[in-house]
Design a protein that fits this description.
Elements lengths: L1 H22 L2 H6 L9 E5 L4 E11 L2 E10 L10 E7 L5 E7 L17 E7 L8 E7 L13
Parallel strand pairs: 1-7
Antiparallel strand pairs: 2-3, 3-6, 4-5, 4-7
Bound molecules: zinc ion.
């Protein structure tokens, strides 16, 4: 009887933990369908042993996100600390907003059993960029702690 209670409690708390993690994380976001995909210019800038293979702007629940996929090039490697910079530039090339974000998993997995080795990133923008601005998504092969663009807390 006691055992059943303990198990029930453990099950409950772990599902709560999972829900908390999902609602605040990549998975929770990606499982939900975004409402719009605004037509903004997006520039993907790869470097070193990796590349930004996708970058999408999505508006969801009144907030704006930039999300996509990072892959390692064949035979390439990405030093620890490599991350993604998302920079919004207006039509006069002025930086409106810049955010650094880690991709997950941090070590881009090697492909196994037909899975494509890739990591994902997601970052929230402060506001929807103007329609004539450009969103640059840059693979920054350098430690995030030294990046000129801070992580959004
Ligand atoms: Zn950076």
């Amino acid at each position: 009887m006691l055992m059943a209670c303990v198990l029930a409690f453990a099950g409950c708390s772990s599902s709560l933990a999972r829900r908390a993690r999902d609602s605040d994380g990549l998975l929770g976001f990606l499982m939900d369908k975004p409402v719009t995909n605004p037509p903004l210019a997006v520039e993907k800038i790869s470097s070193g042993g990796g590349e930004i293979t996708s970058a999408h702007i999505k508006s969801y629940g009144g907030k704006v996100y930039v999300t996509g996929v990072v892959r390692r090039r064949i035979g390439g490697s990405l030093p620890p600390g490599s991350h993604v910079d998302v920079i919004v530039v207006d039509k006069s090339k002025k930086i409106v907003e810049g955010v650094a974000v880690n991709y997950l998993p941090r070590d881009i997995p090697y492909g196994s059993r037909g899975l494509t080795p890739q990591s994902q990133y997601i970052v929230r923008l402060g506001s929807m960029p103007a329609s004539d601005s450009t969103v640059k998504v840059i693979l920054h092969v350098s430690n995030i702690s030294g990046c000129e663009f801070g992580e959004r807390s």
